[in-house]
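note to self — DONT lose this again. spent like an hour looking for the file last time. sequence + predicted structure for the chain T wanted, 401 res
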Amino acid sequence: MIDFNGKPVFSLGMNGVYNQIIDQSAWLRVDFVDKYGADANWLKRWADDKLRQVKGWGFNTLGAWHEKYYWGDGTPKTVEIRMSRFAKKANFNWGIGFPDVFDKSFKASVYKALAECFYEKGEDLLQDRGLIGYYTDNELHWWGSSGKWGDNDPDLGYQSTGLVDDYFELPPHAAGKQAWVQFIADKYGSIERLNEAWGSEYLELDDLLYIAVYRAKPNVLEEDKTGFLRRIAEVYFSTTNAALRLYDPHRLNLGCRMVGTSTPPVVLEVMKEYADLLSLNFYSFELPEKWLQAVSQMMNMPIMITEFSFCAGREAGYLKSTNGARNVLVRDQARRAEAYSAFVNRAASLPYMVGVHWFALYDYANPDGLIGNYGCLDMHDEPWEQFVAAITPVNAALNGR
């Protein structure tokens, strides 16, 4: 990347630089208000202290989910908007689920999310010289609720059209189900041609609205599902990009933070026409370089790892870990730092890679949600000293190269 002074920069980001006083109040071992002064400026003191720490460890970018307090301060930053969060869903498999992009609520959700983003401190953000760009969503499962994402193996769900199966499960009145039947009607034109191609015996095209499992030749149905998946991607990326350009035409569209290697190629082919950068989240010790190289060439755009981590288990007090931490458990803080160094240095050596963003500033301990030694800071708001001391010179070397 090139910063506003014309200097090349490898983005070393820190995710989650936000105050945990609400999200983790039941599990924190510190009272932030008391620690940072029980007056009107306690949050400012907390935010200034965290930014000092993050920069002191050699991170040069505020990644996703940071306090709006930093908007306008010139610190390099990325903002995650989560445009789909108010839309009706095709599935609820992960997080906010995957939107029914054909329903009117999807476009409404995109614009509502953008309005909320820019309503309060939006002018500060628009004037912020450090703002790199926006993520439209977080970890949408483009392979559907039946798929499984993998860290290093592109065959695990990589070609999946499972998302289309989720659209099949929608009720007849749902916009997504009607869009599927219209797609088939546009392609085949008549029930006779459809039956000939599928080897089926339906009486009317509208019959497809009321069933979720179709009688069809597998290879022909898979081709049609792939075509409809392309259509889903076209609606998603064209809608989110058009809205984003309306609010801020000058910053990067950073895409929707893909997970692992499992996004089907047809989705990436569509995405390259709208996004400026491919954002990928990995919880693995190694990067799938052959796959990354092929994707970079296919899309003709740079790549940024927008979430990765390594987490100690028992040694850090976490007998149970959830989500990505389960894939990257290590024995202690020294090993965390060793894994961090190997990962970021290898990523920085790849010519198409423009940054890596660590998850996260704090550990998490929600028994009903995220648990693990993800953080540079523990539940007492204190650094994991051995870890941060070891990664600081690694980051410094990358900042100074």
